[in-house]
């Protein structure tokens, strides 16, 4: 999903990993926009498959594709003898925590996809910056100013407009992407603590392996033998989402987060278009208002980050969605 700059953390005692490859904002913007197409396509495809298989099984198929991509990348890296092994981490404990948070976020998001329109669940997932703001205080020791808190609360208001609690339009399933966003925010904050210790490929490899291990332990309880078409679709979800994440990682090495964040909101547009084309869902005016409020909150937060001149970390993850 959309990209998000992470709060600053205490300086690492290790040498910093390579940061920006150069000041190439147009290339970074193009990569982010393309990544949102990949991620929206992954979400829409997952929604289709969750109508046929349990969410846990869909997640397992997705992670199978994820693991396959990362293992091939590791073999290529080993063949070219470039850098340390992606299986060797300086912070293995944090990598495991991050991997568990990601798979938890994915499962909750998939559960919500069974009921909610793609555009709606995508928009709700953008609530994760609010949780990042809250978690950055105890985890990263950051001081959060009043303006950032106000922007976060405005974003929460946008989510409430979409969810409409207390009305006949409210669906209990809307709670699922909100909790998913909480797990996602935890993964984002842990990612910031890992940056400077592990390379992005190492982080992605550990995420794939940890998530695959967790899902392999629980998928037998809901297993329903998929046909070849379902296996192919599940693998495609893994390949497409992994490609999207990788594009985001590269984009954040070409331009600062404050430049890229506004363009990440194009994912809501793609999600709405795909939802209309494949599921016949049309966002209503109330949802449109909520999306505008959420986007406004995110854009202001990006502006504040630009003013603070916080450099974008490598290996940044999208802010919501199935990851």
TrEMBL record:
<feature type="transmembrane region" description="Helical">
    <location>
        <begin position="285"/>
        <end position="302"/>
    </location>
</feature>
<feature type="transmembrane region" description="Helical">
    <location>
        <begin position="203"/>
        <end position="223"/>
    </location>
</feature>
<feature type="transmembrane region" description="Helical">
    <location>
        <begin position="260"/>
        <end position="279"/>
    </location>
</feature>
<feature type="transmembrane region" description="Helical">
    <location>
        <begin position="121"/>
        <end position="141"/>
    </location>
</feature>
<feature type="transmembrane region" description="Helical">
    <location>
        <begin position="59"/>
        <end position="76"/>
    </location>
</feature>
<dbReference type="InterPro" id="IPR000620">
    <property type="entry name" value="EamA_dom"/>
</dbReference>
<feature type="transmembrane region" description="Helical">
    <location>
        <begin position="172"/>
        <end position="191"/>
    </location>
</feature>
<keyword id="KW-0472">Membrane</keyword>
<keyword id="KW-1133">Transmembrane helix</keyword>
<dbReference type="GO" id="GO:0016020">
    <property type="term" value="C:membrane"/>
</dbReference>
<protein>
    <submittedName>
        <fullName>DMT family transporter</fullName>
    </submittedName>
</protein>
<feature type="transmembrane region" description="Helical">
    <location>
        <begin position="96"/>
        <end position="115"/>
    </location>
</feature>
<dbReference type="InterPro" id="IPR037185">
    <property type="entry name" value="EmrE-like"/>
</dbReference>
<feature type="transmembrane region" description="Helical">
    <location>
        <begin position="148"/>
        <end position="166"/>
    </location>
</feature>
<feature type="domain" description="EamA">
    <location>
        <begin position="173"/>
        <end position="296"/>
    </location>
</feature>
<dbReference type="Pfam" id="PF00892">
    <property type="entry name" value="EamA"/>
</dbReference>
<feature type="transmembrane region" description="Helical">
    <location>
        <begin position="229"/>
        <end position="248"/>
    </location>
</feature>
<keyword id="KW-0812">Transmembrane</keyword>
<feature type="domain" description="EamA">
    <location>
        <begin position="27"/>
        <end position="163"/>
    </location>
</feature>
């Amino acid at each position: 999903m959309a990209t998000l700059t992470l709060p600053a953390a205490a300086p690492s005692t290790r040498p910093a990993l390579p940061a920006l490859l150069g000041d190439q904002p147009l290339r970074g913007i193009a990569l982010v926009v393309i990544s949102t197409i990949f991620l929206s396509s992954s979400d829409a495809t997952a929604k289709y498959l969750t109508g046929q298989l349990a969410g846990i099984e869909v997640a397992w198929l997705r992670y199978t594709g994820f693991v396959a991509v990362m293992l091939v990348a590791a073999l290529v890296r080993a063949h070219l003898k470039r850098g340390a092994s992606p299986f060797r981490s300086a912070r293995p404990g944090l990598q495991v925590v991050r991997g568990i948070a990601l798979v938890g976020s994915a499962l909750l998001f998939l559960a919500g996809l069974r009921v909610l329109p793609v555009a709606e669940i995508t928009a709700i997932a953008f609530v994760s910056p609010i949780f990042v703001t809250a978690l950055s205080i105890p985890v990263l020791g950051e001081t959060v100013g009043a303006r950032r808190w106000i922007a976060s609360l405005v974003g929460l208001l946008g989510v409430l407009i979409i969810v409409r609690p207390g009305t006949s339009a409210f669906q209990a399933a809307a709670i699922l992407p909100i909790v998913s966003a909480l797990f996602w925010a935890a993964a984002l904050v842990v990612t910031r603590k890992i940056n400077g210790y592990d390379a992005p490929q190492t982080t992605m490899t550990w995420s794939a392996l940890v998530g695959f291990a967790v899902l392999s332990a629980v998928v037998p309880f809901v297993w329903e033998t998929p046909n070849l078409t379902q296996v192919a679709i599940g693998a495609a979800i893994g390949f497409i989402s992994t490609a999207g994440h990788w594009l985001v990682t590269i984009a954040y090495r070409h331009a600062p987060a404050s430049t890229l964040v506004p363009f990440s909101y194009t994912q809501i547009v793609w999600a709405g278009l795909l939802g209309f084309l494949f599921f016949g869902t049309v966002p209503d005016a109330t949802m449109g208002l909520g999306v505008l409020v959420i986007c406004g909150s995110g854009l202001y937060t990006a502006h504040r980050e630009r003013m603070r001149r916080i450099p974008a970390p490598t290996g940044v993850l999208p802010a919501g969605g199935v990851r």
